[in-house]
Specification:
Number of domains: 1
Distance between the termini: 32 Å
Order of helices and strands: HEHEHEHEHE
Structural class: alpha/beta
CATH architecture: 3-Layer(aba) Sandwich
Helix content: 25-40%
Strand order of the largest sheet: 1-5-4-2-3
Shape: globular
Radius of gyration: 13 Å
CATH class: Alpha Beta
């Protein structure tokens, strides 16, 4: 129920406020990753992350209650590139990050659209 509520709130915020982040395809995401300062964030569960992730990514599980606390470990002066498996969780996370002042690029369609390198 909590997950559904979070998704509904994120959707309302995205529709009401417009995207305050860049949602890009895999090619655009790869371009964002070329920035040496970018912080790559994988919002999936630790188990999903261990099965394969974009090299250099840090796992911040969106479903954890301390997600906002985990965000505090990131540098707001550096851009964020965020993704998940299919795009739902990364859009919610992108809205949260951008609402907290981060510059955010989100992988539209998630990791299933990614054709780049995967690290296990």
């Amino acid at each position: 129920m909590k997950k559904i509520f979070t998704a509904v709130i994120a959707t309302v915020l995205a529709v009401g406020c417009g995207n305050r982040y860049n949602s890009v395809d895999a090619e655009g995401f790869a371009k964002a990753l070329e920035d040496p300062d970018v912080q790559i964030i994988d919002t999936r569960t630790p188990q999903e992350f261990s099965e394969g992730h974009i090299p250099g990514a840090v796992n911040l599980d969106l479903d954890r209650e301390d997600f906002f606390d985990q965000m505090g470990s990131l540098d707001k002066s550096k851009p964020i590139a965020v993704y998940c498996r299919g795009g739902r969780r990364s859009k919610i996370a992108a809205e949260r990050f951008s609402g907290c002042g981060f510059e955010v690029t989100e992988l539209d369609g998630g990791l299933i659209t990614w054709e780049g390198e995967i690290e296990k």
